[in-house]
Design brief:
elongated, alpha+beta, binds iron/sulfur cluster, two-stranded antiparallel ribbon, Ferredoxin, 4 strands, Alpha-Beta Plaits
């Protein structure tokens, strides 16, 4: 899967970090670092982290081209 964090929007509140620590982490006081291509096993955690962000800075792509289309 793929994620993008809009670092212009991110305020470094870090609510997201404990929800998906395998993928999101803080560098220093407020700089967010992340894995843009996390393993799909983390999907649920990442969706929770994205939902927790007060400024909706975490964008999660529904699926990547090499993943099968979800069933209708
Ligand atoms: S919760 Fe949102 S604003 Fe806070 S660190 Fe995570 S992405 Fe940035």
């Amino acid at each position: 899967m793929r994620i993008v964090v809009d670092l212009n929007r991110c305020q470094g509140y870090a609510q997201c970090v404990p929800l998906a620590p395998q993928v999101l982490r803080l560098l220093g006081e407020e700089a967010l670092a992340y894995d843009p291509n996390p393993d799909d096993v983390h999907r649920r955690r990442i969706l929770r982290a994205a939902a927790s962000c007060p400024v909706q800075a975490i964008l999660v792509e529904a699926h990547t081209p090499d993943e099968p289309e979800p069933a209708p």
